[in-house]
Amino acid sequence: MESNSTKIAKIATKMAVCDRSEEDEFKKIYSQKGIKVTAVNIGGNINSSVSKILESALVASKRNGLIREEHLHEGAVIGATRDAIIQISNKASGQNVGGKIGIARGGEHISVCIFLSIGLLHLDEVVIGIGHRSLPI
């Protein structure tokens, strides 16, 4: 049996890897199931983009109603996003990246997934990181 935290993490991952047209469809589908989702594109040098990634995840979460403008809610998104960044940082350090942040919230569970393509000359590498927090409903 799948836990709610696992289910929400899978949905956040799906949001991070989908294309723009699928995002709107997923928003409708998951909204009917009581799950809020969002995604935001990111890119640039990973080392200089960390604060921008944190800000983008927070702003997208607020704009799409995944969290309220409260210390606990904001801290949960920042914490989960930082966990995801830590998971990708070794592989992407110093490199130019492009990709997406996918965020899903169902009940007390919120997951942030970062999916990136890393440009290395003519070779492309990919990396994925995910973070989870629980927060008050």
UniProtKB/TrEMBL annotation:
Antiterminator that binds to cis-acting regulatory sequences on the mRNA in the presence of histidine, thereby suppressing transcription termination and activating the hut operon for histidine utilization. The keyword Transcription regulation applies. Homohexamer. This is Hut operon positive regulatory protein. The lineage of its organism: Bacteria, Bacillati, Bacillota, Clostridia, Eubacteriales. Pfam families: HutP. SUPFAM superfamilies: Hut operon positive regulatory protein HutP. The keyword Heme does not apply. InterPro entries: Regulatory_HutP, Regulatory_HutP_sf. It comes from Clostridium saccharobutylicum DSM 13864.
